[in-house]
Amino acid sequence: MSTPSKRTVQNQGRWNQLPGQRWLRLLLMGAFLYEASANAQTCQTSVDMSADVQAALKTTAQHYFEMAAHGDTAALKQNSIASVASSFGGIEAVVKENQAIFSGAKTTIRPSFLLIADGPEPLARAEFLCGVFGKTGQTENSAVFVLPNLPPGKYGVTILDVNSGQAASTLTFILQQAGTEWKLGGLYVRSSQASGHDATWFIQRARDFKAKSKNRDAWLYYREAIALSIPVDFMSTLFTDKLYEEVQSTQPADLPANGSTVDLTANGKVYHLTEIFPLAVGNDLDVVVKYQYPDVSDTARTFQENMTLIKALVAKFPELHEAFAGVVARAVEPSGRDYGSLLAMKDIK
Fold it and tell me: Of 101, 135, 129, 96, which is closest to residue 115 (Cα–Cα)?
């Protein structure tokens, strides 16, 4: 396991996994059947695991945090599993980017989870149900983890709330047991705020937009709230499940979601929109829209296409004016290379 090197990369990647995850409801509906019939994946909460394991996970996570706070990436790499150590650049970049926040910050360690994956081969889709589930799904202290291509083994998930006084974030360690040691298998940092606001603020704003029938604004703000509510994309809780339910009532059919593509016509040309999501930049909250484009090498031409798309998008959905400071259009060619342009809302007439 590894982690993206920039928060913006995390933002751009996570939206494919957010609202509309039907698998989660199906999973929870069959939770008890799953636990009774499957033995490939099991989870222990801090209540279930032994005191020795609890202490080891907590101590190891705190030790690795101190390494990160001191910028000691060499020690972190040395204490990583082989697959992570061989491709350590992403984690190293994240540590360097967040070292100033970690240094001197106060931390609170949440109760850990122990994920046990049995079998001779990696699990294409490992699903862990942690804690007690009720008739309608998750309960206050439960969690669900979904990890792709997970090798057999024992994994600890330990989450630290990090408060530097000026910024709040979460730092999640994935630890893999190797003999008597717990090696670093993944490190994930996520801000608990966007544009100076936390998840609660975004939820209230989303509800306000919904009350005014501005469902596109509401949908985008709900998604930001969900992203701020979970420390990693492969985890869900009762809180996020309830937010998913709220999101469903606002999801618009005329914006791309869950891998779907939506067409937008401007100046007689059809633009194939592939993604749209909010992105915090400093104290501003922008909305980013991605679309298919054959070749971005002619940047002057691509810039003009981006401007045309932005103006057409806001003309079609004027409610975006109230919710965002600007729009970023990113033309993405088949190779994955892209070219982006920002236009402030105040400049969109």
Answer: 129
